[in-house]
Write a structure and sequence with these properties.
Blueprint lengths: L1 H5 L5 H12 L4 H10 L7 H7 L5 H10 L1 H54 L5 H44 L10 H14 L3 E8 L2 H8 L1 H18 L4 E6 L2 E7 L2 H17 L2 E2 L6 E3 L3 E7 L6 H17 L5 E3 L3 E2 L1
Parallel strand pairs: 6-7
Antiparallel strand pairs: 1-3, 1-6, 2-3, 4-5, 7-8
């Protein structure tokens, strides 16, 4: 949770750092960290290095291995990958067997016809009756096997659809219906790998805690859904994800100037809406977002781009909120 809140990469060194904090919450390190993050400031990788904690690889590896949530996530992904491979292989086998049995059945039927014709000339040869009976029985069994294979094929297709649904659910935020953090980070990695021009933006709902405190979390959830829908509609063609809490992450494909213009239009759209309680029609007051947006540099680490966008986001909040702040300029 600490790494998630601070937007720190879940690597061995950072796991070890979090481990020191959890095991000694009143210690010197915890005190120093509390001072650094006072006021909502997030730690950077440079802050961790500057604190000078002994984060040896052996400690880091032990911490990572003890992180049950990370292990469970990796196991689930591995299981899903193996299951998908098994289902695909089984489906291919079913298709092949169905074709073979259909051909075999056709050949046997032709043989029965030939034997029936042969009987007309050799009525005294009783063994032909036996052969015909046996062959007909074999055809019946093949037909039964074909029906079973058809059923197995249908079940395999259903299982494949269920796996596709499960994979989609794993990449979807259940509250807003938007892609979740995992989906965003996958798309982010793909954009970096392709080297295509792209920008990342981090959006945060201004004074969202006040909404929850005054109207309750159920109303807060409705506000997040409404903002998510607005962002998705005004930023079509780009990826909009709920990154966590009241934060949304956007991946823009194109130059920085285009990303700024699009996300600023989204900011204006959010601010112009008038939110009211559906039960009483009481206004919630103005709700706005602050945004930090930055271009992706070639071959840079994902954490660096996220931290840069995050710093710009908090600079926008410090500048008065309801702003878009980029590496080059501020939009009010």
């Amino acid at each position: 949770m600490f790494l998630f809140d601070q937007r720190l990469e879940p690597n061995p060194v950072n796991y070890a750092f979090a481990y020191h904090l959890v095991t000694d919450p009143q210690g010197t390190l915890a005190t120093a960290v509390a001072a650094l993050i006072d006021g909502g400031v997030r730690l950077t990788q440079r802050d961790i290095e500057a604190l000078g904690v002994d984060l040896s690889p052996s400690v880091a590896r032990g911490t990572e291995e003890n992180d049950t949530s990370a292990v469970a996530a990796r196991n689930a992904e591995t299981l899903m990958a193996k299951t998908e491979m098994q289902v695909a292989g089984f489906a291919d086998i079913m298709t092949t067997v169905r074709t073979e049995t259909r051909d075999f059945s056709r050949d046997l039927a032709a043989s029965v016809d030939a034997m029936e014709r042969s009987r007309e000339g050799y009525e005294s040869i009783s063994f032909l009756d036996d052969v015909t009976h046996i062959t007909a029985t074999m055809i019946g069994r093949v037909h039964a096997a074909e029906r079973q294979l058809d059923q197995a094929h249908r079940e395999t297709q259903e299982l494949r659809q269920m796996l596709e649904q499960a994979r989609g659910d794993a990449l979807c935020d259940p509250l807003t219906g938007l892609p979740n953090r995992r989906a965003f980070e996958q798309a982010f990695a793909e954009a970096l790998a392709k080297g295509q021009p792209a920008c990342v933006a981090i959006c945060d709902v201004d004074h969202f805690k006040t909404v929850n405190d005054r109207f309750g979390h159920a109303v807060g959830d409705r506000v997040l859904r409404a903002i998510g829908q607005t962002l998705a509609q005004t930023c079509k063609g780009h990826l909009v994800a709920r990154y966590g809490g009241e934060e949304f992450a956007l991946l823009f494909y194109g130059p920085l100037s285009s990303a700024i213009a699009t996300v600023d239009a989204a900011r204006l759209e959010v601010g112009q809406k008038r939110y009211r309680l559906r039960e009483t029609d009481v206004p919630l007051g103005e709700i706005t977002i602050s945004v930090g947006v930055t271009p992706l540099a070639k071959q840079e680490h994902a954490t660096d781009a996220f931290q840069r966008a995050d710093r710009l986001l908090y600079a926008a909040k410090d500048a008065g909120r309801n702003k878009v702040l980029s590496d080059s300029e501020t939009h009010c």
